[in-house]
C-alpha cells in the first residue's frame, strides 16, 4: 500500500488545488494511510471532471474581458467621431460642428470658425475631457488587468469612465439648450454624443462590479 500512496497523494492533492481555485464547493482531503477507499475513489473520479471544467471557466472569463474591452473601444471611437465630425447640425448645403460652420457653394466647401460664445467653448471643453477620460480609463483598465492584485475591483477605471459619461452628457445638454433655433436639423455627430453617454455609463458600472479572477 505504501508503494501507491505517493501516486494517490499526487492525484488527490492536485484535485484539491484545482477545486479550490475554480470550484470552492469541492474540497478533497489529502491522502493518508487512514483515508478510506471511498474518499480516494471520489477524488480520483473528480479530478478529470475538474480538469474539463477549468478551460470552460478560463474561456468564459476571456470572453467577458474581451467584451468589456470591445465595448470600451467602441465608446472611445464614438466620442472621437462625435467631437471631430462636422455634423452636429445639418441643413441643405450647410453643416455645423463644434469647431467650424461650413457651407457648400460653387462646387466647393467654405468653412469659418465657430462662434466664440461661452456655451460653445464649454461644449468643446467637455467633449475633449470626455475623450481624454475615456482614453485614461482604457489605459487604467489595461494596467490594472495585469498589475492589480487578484480579487481586486476596477474602481479606478470605473471612476474615469463614469466621469467621461458625465462630461459628454453635460456637453450634449448644453448644446441642445443653447444652440440657436434655425431650420437646420441635428446631425449624426450630435446623435453619437447622446448614444455614447449611456454606453459610457454602463461601461463604468460594469467596471465597478467586475472583479479580477482569483
Q: Specify the biggest β-sheet.
A: 5 strands, antiparallel
Low-confidence stretches: 1-35
Q: Looking at the structure, what is the overall shape? A: elongated
Strand content: 5-15%
> What is the mean pLDDT?
77
Number of DSSP-assigned strands:
5
What count of structural domains?
Answer: 2
**Major beta sheet, strand line-up:** 4-3-2-1-5
The SS-based structural class is alpha+beta
**Euclidean distance between termini CA atoms:** 37 Å
Helix content: 55-70%
What is the ordering of alpha helices and beta strands?
Answer: HHEEEEHHEH
Question: What is the number of helices?
Answer: 5
Keywords: Membrane, Transmembrane, Transmembrane helix
InterPro entries: PMP-22/EMP/MP20-like (IPR050579), PMP22/EMP/MP20/Claudin (IPR004031), PMP22_EMP_MP20 (IPR004032)
Transmembrane segments: 37-56, 63-88, 122-142, 154-175, 187-210
Main location: membrane
What does this structure look like?
A hairpin with a 2-residue loop joins strand 3 and strand 4 (108-113). Helix 1 packs parallel to helix 2 (37-84). The chain has two domains: 2-19 and 27-55, no CATH class; 65-85 and 118-209. A five-stranded antiparallel β-sheet has the order 4-3-2-1-5. It has five helices and five strands; from the N terminus they run H-H-E-E-E-E-H-H-E-H. It has 214 residues and is α+β, with helices and mostly antiparallel strands. Residues 1-35 have low confidence and may be disordered. Helix content is 68%, strand content 9%. The protein has helices spanning 2-22, 37-84, 118-147, 155-178, 188-209, and strands at residues 89-91, 94-96, 100-105, 108-113, 185-186.
Amino acid at each position: 500500500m505504501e508503494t501507491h500512496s505517493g501516486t494517490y497523494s499526487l492525484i488527490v492533492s492536485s484535485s484539491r488545488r484545482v477545486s479550490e481555485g475554480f470550484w470552492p464547493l469541492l474540497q478533497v482531503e489529502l491522502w493518508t494511510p487512514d483515508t478510506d477507499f471511498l474518499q480516494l475513489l471520489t477524488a480520483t473520479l473528480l479530478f478529470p471532471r475538474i480538469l474539463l471544467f477549468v478551460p470552460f471557466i478560463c474561456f468564459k472569463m476571456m470572453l467577458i474581458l474581451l467584451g468589456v474591452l470591445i465595448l470600451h473601444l467602441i465608446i472611445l471611437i464614438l466620442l472621437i467621431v462625435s467631437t471631430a465630425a462636422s455634423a452636429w447640425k445639418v441643413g441643405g448645403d450647410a453643416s455645423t460642428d463644434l469647431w467650424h460652420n461650413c457651407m457648400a457653394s460653387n462646387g466647393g466647401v467654405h468653412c469659418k470658425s465657430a462662434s466664440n460664445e461661452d456655451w460653445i467653448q464649454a461644449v468643446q471643453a467637455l467633449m475633449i475631457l470626455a475623450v481624454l477620460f475615456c482614453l485614461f480609463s482604457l489605459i487604467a483598465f489595461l494596467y490594472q488587468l495585469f498589475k492589480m492584485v487578484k480579487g481586486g475591483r476596477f474602481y479606478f477605471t470605473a471612476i474615469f469612465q463614469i466621469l467621461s459619461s458625465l462630461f459628454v452628457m453635460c456637453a450634449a445638454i448644453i448644446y441642445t439648450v443653447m444652440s440657436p433655433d434655425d431650420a437646420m436639423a441635428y446631425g449624426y455627430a450630435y446623435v453619437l454624443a447622446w448614444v455614447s453617454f449611456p454606453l459610457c455609463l454602463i461601461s463604468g458600472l460594469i467596471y465597478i462590479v467586475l472583479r479580477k479572477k482569483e
